[in-house]
């Protein structure tokens, strides 16, 4: 609630005060501060922090009367009393004086000439300056006995002496009364009613500390023996027979005391470094323990013992925080009910480590300034760096700056919805998400943002559209500086309010008010300073739509008023609506269109607010027309106005001890009786008043029993006049309260709940329990339930529908002063011991706390309803993990057995959601291994959970379970499950997961298969093995070649990529080629019989698909890992999925070329060229080629005859063209060129534009042809008809297919037709073309000529086809491979004739290469069919070589001869040593 900012300011103490600071004390208004040293008294002003006057005592006075010790202010700030060490009290008189040339101020505020004021008044009559004060020594009074403490009680001084007396003195130095009060004669008891009082036994006992509280009606005292209590003045007088004490039970080591009047609390500091806070029982008057102020041993181990006893305690002016200082150094700030807000003993503070050891930093005295924006501290530092000399003391007066939540003084409804902090000159707002939401909401509107904000004053629930993910993620503060024009004469800022949208802000200082709009970034002030100075905001302010409502006191007419100022108009009384109230207003709040006002006479008034857009009639005391800056400001018809109508008054005088103790008043729609969730409407009416009285929450509900006899009438009016029942206490120790005025039909439980912030006790939620539709509601069942839970942050705002609590926290930033140290400044000054303080925005989810408490109370059905309503939250899975983790940590580490454990219920609850498997494994991975057995005893066996992941397809979750199995099961079990997961990941195409699994299997291959490891090995998520970076070549899926790829050099297509090998003779190479099948079968038998006898070999570099791997031991585990990979590679290759095969090899470092060399006669065999070609087009997103027929037929018109087409007429050819290609007319082509693509391929925009031009040209030529035919019809009509029929019969067949005869194509025109087809055809994506060309090189190196031929056909690369044919002709390629290529080309020609004529030109271009293949087959004879081994057949030598174990040249296939390489040599592209295809 209070958070420090920046470094503390060091105030310069005059050099004559070398004796050191003793104390600092503020007056009643906290404007003047008295700084006490050993021999001087100085009066300081709060803003600016300057010293006004100082009185230094002479040496003789110090020697005679003693040094200064303590001080006390007179209530009217006209006198100061100072005690001395020798039992004297010195009285000083203060008065204002007028200085010549300065007036009544010693410092005046002036305006600079460069920036003149824009306000109406030209003088500085209202400008605040530093007053000039004359301080004179009045008299001194000697008190018998040592003065222990003194306190001001009304117009008297009460002094406790060392001889056990209480002396009463007047401020003129005269002792009041004949004798003092004997402290030993004061009776003490446990309470004021039932217990028996007894006097103190010790004679001469006194009070070491005393503090007076008028609201508590007594004194909080501390005795020398460590006991403490409250001395009550029964008759309101300090006399012998009217005092009775009440003990604070359980305390025997008290050092200091502080009283909080607003919350009726008494805080005691103890010698053990702890603080104990007591509250007063209103019934018996006894002191009961409220809470303790104790640092957590987890965050601050042994901090209290190191810092010693508590030396000082000070409550803030509003009573919301308590500052605590320790005797050995350090300080902390607590909220009113014990939440730690700031502590200097943490590791991030400089005091806790080196500084505390070398420099003893002590706070001798401290005091809060006006509104609590500064904490004045009289500090002393003992430098221990000098070993030989005594520690040197350094005194300094520090001022620590604070910002506080607006809820401390102005707890209105709109301030509860935002993170809103106020400082003395600036505001901190965390509403960036609201700006984004409003801009998104107004993006579809035809009005500007400013107008929409101005006119969107409706408080309906659909206006602010919530986007919780943006708000939760936004941690930046928007700092709004308050203008010096307003702040200069109205410091400090007392109240601040923000509207519901978060765009408009209003502030009120000493006088008047001002407001700010974020969308204009401008402040609006009163144009007339007289109007500003005539009003003082006393009870807060709030926003209603676009109106500012403030509770103020009219100084001009001496009355309390409610005023409403429209935001759109000028800030002037002429536009304001005012309503007189009978007494001073202390608090105000809003509920929809109702205003709640709490007055000083303990009455609550309810007003109805109505908006009128007509010309407003001024009702305030000021004139309707106000002259400002020479211009008259009159209200226009467009200026909005509003009015207030009193509805009801409620008296709380019988329920509250004093009006000051009322913290907040809220009108809500909450009731103890809850209806069904379906009956809850979005528009809820006011049903109850909730009042926070000194931390106790009172609820007053409307009395519905009086409406039973009334059946008719306006329901809304009936509810307004219904009385309220007697209050009931909902909770105690409440600091803040949140309730929603909007109801969400999806999350009625959260929106209908009441949220309470209870300091150290965390939060409480008063949750409704809605019955189910099929459940009968019993009267004895609870309608609501109060659920407490702890938080790690201090809550400042609650997002009801997002299940998130927003707060703020103190954070520090270290700064090194060594670089900027000056020679005259010591490094041990208190300023340098403090770090730089900042305010950090914090967030915490609370949904799991609610579910846990409901399950603990066997309310699982309600917990399930709430959880299901929040399934749409993006962090719902995280909520389930938090729920499981907290219960697991608590129960698994319990020292005593738990008879009714909660973990089984939590697990069964999570099982209701699809995130169950993921939640269990994530929770296990984040906890210790020792707790896993307790977790899986309730969740089930990890093996069963792993199998469930496989069945549901959650492979990533299943991979996390492998780590669990590795630590709980033997290595053989984890290896078995990892193999199952590897198969599933390969089938699903999850290559990264498969790669991690391969590394995982190889890592555990050498472990003991019988005993699990003691420490988990995490090859999947932990960076034990470096992973290659993801591809960065674009968003297209493809081959991920990255850092695992070796640099690619220029090499011959016949050279083996496995490395440089010695080339054998041609005879040895031929012998190995002819006997490859026999050698393969023999090697397979040997490898299968004794896999462990295989000698270890080094896997060589195989291009960019594999990287250099370490030496692997020749084990059966490693062997069968490669068998799994090879089996999947056969599956992909057999299905023709080359693109997936490339991705598989790239991600898993699979030696593709060596494996393809062994599989070229088995899995790499292509039996159906047409189907395989279709598969390549589909997988690589490569469209089928198309052809432009206009160019073909135009050649027949120019005299170039193509077969039978040249004998047909020109007109008939164009008529046939209108019929179209594949059943499509020219109109169809122009309307949708995508129909030209077989297999659902679509044309690119560039191709569509080309086809449009082509179709236009064809239509024009067709029209010309018809005109020519009509002119020539009389001459050769019959011939034209015959030629037309022949054209239709030869070109168009079955009205849907285009048949092109080979005679149409002349070899002389093939190059031109091919170029035209290439130009019109839409090529595939560039990255796919790169992948295809790379696979072409791989297939050529591996000798898979069939796939190389198909890839060349897809790319329409005639040179690639030539290289394939040359390789087949110049090498000893098996005759069956050549025969299949020849037959495949023949089938493709037939397929192109009937289905895809776009391939016809290219097939005719490579017909010569097909004839070469035919010649090879004819020369070598008929091919012998080689049986294709299945993946289940026995392993061959190719399988053994595919494992990556390469030996000498005799173990592998020899490369081609030098002559063959010279024919087919090519060079692969080089790109920085890597080939990246994505």
Keywords:
alpha+beta, 41 helices, eight-stranded antiparallel beta sheet, single chain, 1478 residues, disordered C terminus, five-stranded mixed beta sheet
- The span between the termini is 54 Å
What proportion of the residues is helical, as a percent range? 25-40%
The largest pleated sheet is described as: 8 strands, antiparallel
Oligomer: single chain
Explain this structure.
- The strands form 16 sheets. Strands 1, 2, 30, 31, 32, 33, 34 and 35 form an eight-stranded antiparallel beta sheet that branches.
- The protein has 1478 residues and is of the alpha+beta class.
- It is built from 41 helices and 62 strands.
- Helix 21 runs parallel beside helix 25 and helix 37 (1375-1394) runs antiparallel to helix 39.
- It is 30% helix and 25% strand.
